[in-house]
Amino acid sequence: xxxxxxxxxxxxxxxxxxxxxxxxxxxxxxxxxxxxxxxxxxxxxxxxxxxxxxxxxxxxxxxxxxxxxxxxxxxxxxxxxxxxxxxxxxxxxxxxxxxxxxxxxxxxxxxxxxxxxxxxxxxxxxxxxxxxxxxxxxxxxxxxxxxxxxxxxxxxxxxxxxxxxxxxxxxxxxxxxxxxxxxxxxxxxxxxxxxxxxxxxxxxxxxxxxxxxxxxxxxxxxxxxxxxxx
Length: 230
Ligand SMILES: Nc1ncnc2c1ncn2[C@@H]1O[C@H](COP(=O)(O)OP(=O)(O)OP(=O)(O)O)[C@@H](O)[C@H]1O
Ligand SMILES: [Mg+2]
Prior knowledge:
The protein has a single domain (2-223), classed as Rossmann fold, CATH 3.40.50.300. It is globular. It contains seven helices and ten strands. The strands form two sheets. It has a six-stranded mixed beta sheet, sandwiched between helices. The protein has helices at 44-51, 74-84, 100-110, 115-128, 144-156, 174-189, 201-204; strands at residues 2-13, 16-28, 33-37, 59-64, 67-68, 85-89, 162-166, 193-197, 209-214, 217-223. The model has no long low-confidence stretch (mean pLDDT 96). Helix content is 33%, strand content 29%. The protein is an alpha/beta fold. The chain binds adenosine-5'-triphosphate and magnesium ion (MG). Adenosine-5'-triphosphate is lined by residues 11, 13, 18, 20, 38, 40-46.
C-alpha cells in the first residue's frame, strides 16, 4: 500500500539547510491503522505531506498502491491524490463560502463525476460520518466536531485507498475526539487504510500500530497491544 524507502527531505531556509527527514523507510500494508507520534518538529507533518503527495522530497522512493509516485509532475500528483488519497487536517480546511454538501462534492467535481451522482455520493458520505442534518448550512454554522466529520466525508467520498490525517483531533475536546476515532475505526473495519498523526498517547491506543519519530528519524515502531475499540 505505502512503501517509502530512504526518504530524505531538506528545507532550504535563508541559505540554511534543515534536514527534516533523515532517511525514512516505512511500509504500511492495506488495512492497517497507524499512528505517527513524536515531539513537535520531529518531522511528522513533513512525512504526512509527502505521503499525501502534497510535498516533494529530495532523495528516496515512494510506492503508493503499487505505483511509483517518486517523480510525478504536479498535475500527475494531483490526479493520483484525488483518486487514491483522502486527507484530513487539524484545522478542517473547509471552504467557508460553500455549503457542507458542496464541500463534500468538491473532490468529485475535480474527478468529473456527474452532478446527480455527486449529490447522492456526498449525502451517502455525510451519512457515513453521522451527519444528515444541516448539510445546506455553511461550515461556520456547525461545531468543530461536525466540521471534522464534514472533512472526513469529503476525504472518503472518492473512496480512497488510504485516509491520512494530521492531528485530526488536535482542535477537539475529548468527547468529540472519541467520536472521530470511532469513525476512523469504522472506516478501517470497512477496509480503508488509515494513517494518523497524534500528540496524544491515549488517542493512539485506538489505532493498531504506533510509529514514533524523533529528529527526522523513526525511533520506534510497535503494534498497539490491547487496542481500544469504540
Ligand atoms: N516549509 C518549511 N520550511 C522550512 N522548514 C520547515 C518547513 N516545514 C517544516 N519545517 C521544519 O522541519 C522540521 C519538521 O517540521 P514538521 O512540521 O514536520 O514537524 P512536526 O513533527 O509535524 O511538528 P508538530 O508536532 O509541531 O506539528 C521542523 O524543524 C520545522 O521547523
Ligand atoms: Mg505537524
